[in-house]
Structure formats: C-alpha cells, structure tokens
C-alpha cells in the first residue's frame, strides 16, 4: 500500500478527547499497514500503542517496527482484558474475515482495507471506514467490488457516520 494512501489518517471525525489509540496488527501486509498507521497517528499527536502478536520476519516489516520504536511508540506483548472493549484497531489479526468471529474484541472504530470484509456486517462499533481508493480497476472488477465515492482527493471514506 503506498504510504500516500494513508494520508487521511487520522480522520477529522475521530475524537481528540481520548488521544490514545490501540493499533492491532496482523502478520504480513496487515501488520505493515498497521505500523504505518501508528506512525501517522503519532505525527498527528495521537498516542498509539501497538499490539503485534505475530511479527513478520520480512526485513521491510522489521524496518517499520524499528521506525515505530524510534518514535517511542510502545508495543504490548499481550492484550490486557480491560482494553478489549475500548480498542480502535486497524486490521485485527484474529477476526475471521468471513464469519465475523471477533475473538472477544469489540472495537470502536474499524478500518477496512480495500473493501469491507464479510465480518464487517457484524461490526457494532461507532465508526467504519474503508481505505481503498488505490485499488486498481481490474481488481475491483475481478472481485465484483463496488467501492464508495471518495470525496475530493481523500483516500479514506466513512461508511458509517459517528454515533
């Protein structure tokens, strides 16, 4: 994912009252995207903490991890029970993308990359965004995706307005 596709993070509609954000990273590309998002959040004066349980051995992803560490973004070795109902994750590694099983996680904000997955139908949080304007037309056609309209030059759009 080009870093420029993440330029809209954080969105103006995300509250600033609570600047702390937990970024939950999956392995491989999802992990890399989560790490890049955490860096962007830090630049915009949020206080991200990263939970990255299945780290990729790929040198690029290790570099992203190092960059976050050098920005003093803390990493958690486990997910505390008390935050399970107050998290705002980027890709959640243990969500079943088809069935929607969340493993006990109840995020407030969901960011779908490219297109909402089947599990997003069961998402009960406050806001749902999709980041995917960068998705090539042939991929959209192949998977019969119908992406939302992106206003102006935005690369992220809200699918569910704040409650």
Automatic annotation (TrEMBL):
Residues 1-163 form the YjeF N-terminal domain. Coiled coil: none annotated. Pfam families: YjeF_N. GO terms for molecular function: NAD(P)HX epimerase activity. One of its GO terms (cellular component) is mitochondrion. This is YJEN3 protein. It comes from Rostratula benghalensis (greater painted-snipe).
